[in-house]
Structure formats: C-alpha cells, structure tokens
C-alpha cells in the first residue's frame, strides 16, 4: 500500500502549508525535559546528512534529505514521489535548538521541527509535539554514511553546465577494498586507481584505462569527464550531491548519488 493512501485515511494535520505538505496526527504534550548536560545537542554527533520518505496527503511520499552543519546552517532537498518531473525543491538557512537541546527548528517560509536522536531525525508537529497514528514510524530520517566510496555517482554537471541526456548515464564508483575507480564516461567504460583522504576531502585519480569505441554522441561529455578526473584534487560533499574541484576554483563537475530501489 502506498504511503499516500494510508495518509489520506488518517486525520490530516499539515505540518506546513501547501497541498503536498506531510500529513500527520499529533500527540498532546511534549516529552519530559532531559538533563541539559546530556541533551542531544551536547551528547550526540548530530551534524551530518539524514534521509527518509515522509508521508504525503496526495502523493506517494516526500523523499526528504536534511543536512545539518556544525555551524548552525542547514540545507534540505525534497522530491514529491509519483508527481513527475519538476517536483523537487531545495532550501537552505539556519536552524536553532530548543531550550532543552533536544529538538531543532529549521527556519524559512515553511519552518520544520525535528527531534534529534541517535543517528536520526524525527519530524515533529509545528507545536513541537510528537506525531502519532498509523504513519508515525514514517516521520523518521536516518543519518547517512558520509563516505563517498561504494556509491554510484551520476554525472549531472560539467563546468556548471547540465550534462545532456545520453543513451547511458555517465557515472563512476569508487571501490574501497582496492582503491579502484570504475565507470562510464559517455561512450566508453573506464577504470583506474585513486587515492583518498576523507578527513581532508582530498582525492587524486591515477591513469585511466578505457575501451576505444567511437560514438555518435557523448564524446564531448567523455572528454570533459576525463579532463575532470585528471585535474581534480579535492571534493565537496552535501548529502547526495558531490563536486570534484581543483584547489579553490569553481567546481569542475557535480555528481549525484543514485540508489537502487
């Protein structure tokens, strides 16, 4: 059963304005105040990226990614499942903690509250109360592994320009076991070695081996892709989005993580 159908059966209370906002029922009263010295803010490693699918009144669910920075900045990305293209939205801003250090408020036109737990965020109603009902377990975002290895990275931008649609999408995967990279550049498959220091976000790629096919389209993307791998010496990670960079110059290329359904 789709999440959206379950949501329509529950008593709807919109967490934020808009027809596609998450639907919820809420419990009365807030949780007991914890000891401030052992609050989520002080005791947990909460900075990072969280992902989940929130219930939606008129769609299959809202795929939600929230990134919390240690400096109080946040970014979010939301995608309304089953709504087709053009239903993805991004926000960024600052978040604040409540007096107890247990929950946060994401500022903005549609502010959102989350209870901060061990490796998870729990969406709250606008008054800060816990959500109950049949869909309560779906209001949870789980902290993501922030390693860039063992993930399928799809190329979406080269030098700030969108990558055109090809018969097969350019991508790469970094194997942590043997420090090897494998992928597809737009026409040919390729492979090689890499060195990575995730503490400093430094990465360098070695000499690449590639098949030698000629294609009617995709060759310019392939050339640009290989140029990026030759030049890149660091990366920036923001949830499911990663850029390869050279020094402090503008990003060379942007990639998005793709997960098998």
UniProtKB/TrEMBL annotation:
InterPro entries: Cu-R_lipoprotein_NlpE, DUF306_Meta_HslJ, HslJ-like_sf, Hsp_HslJ-like. The keyword Signal applies. Residues 1-21 form the signal peptide. Transmembrane segments: none annotated. Residues 146-256 form the DUF306 domain. The keyword Signal applies. Keywords: Signal, Stress response. This is Heat shock protein HslJ. It comes from Sphingobium jiangsuense.
